[in-house]
Fold this protein.
Amino acid sequence: MIFNAGGHMGLLVHKGYKREEQHALGSKFLISNGYFGYRGTLDEGDSSDFVALNLNGLFDGETIKESVNAYNPLYTLIIADGINLNPKSFRPKVHEISLDTGSGVFRRRSDFEYSDVEISIKSERFLDQTDKNLMYCKYIFKSDSEIDIEINMGIDDLIWNVAENHLIDRS
């Protein structure tokens, strides 16, 4: 991780992927705008990867009061030639996440290689600081060869919560 000299806003960087680091990295690379926060997790992550869209100031819980997490609206997964391009299941040649602490932009880059194919995935996201109901995500993939591709995008309704599920029907 790198900060500019003098403790000014800078760039946080983490290179490589280790499953056991994902919980801590999600907290270190969290982005927020005061209305909601989004953990610094990967696009293809699910609740088992500690993905969370946290609704600041909304609390629930019968045993422990904790802030509520909502459904993940930014889920994106690529399957190329039948291979799930998720660092959790297919080790990338290069993997890096970063957070520009000045602009609040979270970025990710993963380069995968199999057979004679190289695929690069880049994404970035940020939360609007003016219209606090908005979040933005850009997702780009590039292949150096012709491939069969399947893109899965949508809202992941499996929610990670620390203590208990909050968005459930209690009637």
Summary: The first strand starts at residue 11 and ends at 15. The longest helix spans residues 22-28. The helical segments are 22-28.
